[in-house]
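Contributing new records

If you add data, match the layout below exactly. Sequence lines come first and carry their own label; structure lines follow with theirs. Keep one chain per record. Anything else will be rejected by the validation script.
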Amino acid sequence: MGSTTYEWILDHEFGGKDPAEWKWPYDVPCWVFTHRQLPAVPDARIAFTSATVAAVHEQMVRAAGDRNVWIVGGGDLAGQFADAGLLDEVIVSIAPVTLGGGAPLLPRRIELRLDELGRNGDFVGVRFSVLRRRPRQATLGLP
């Protein structure tokens, strides 16, 4: 994830709590791509990196084993994976508040094919395949 997504999680999960009380809600390894010094969550499996996505990708694939690698939030970060040929799916959950405002989902042109569309309560879930991809790539999931 990018630093903005990480900071959003910190604000929404731990806002107003002492850092000693923070408990990371995920048990899978996580990489936060940033050039800034960010607060760390105690005992969380989080690595902060300013390396390129291509340099970190193999570590992510090894850690995932036979599972998918997820790129969460961060349209620019997802675009970097796409630019490196390391993105094969884009999964988006769209809420009514999303429509008509906010930043562009992806800040660059990525060729996509609609594969699945569904409803989850008040959300619409959309799954696209990234065209012109390389094998063994990552998936972007946006809340």
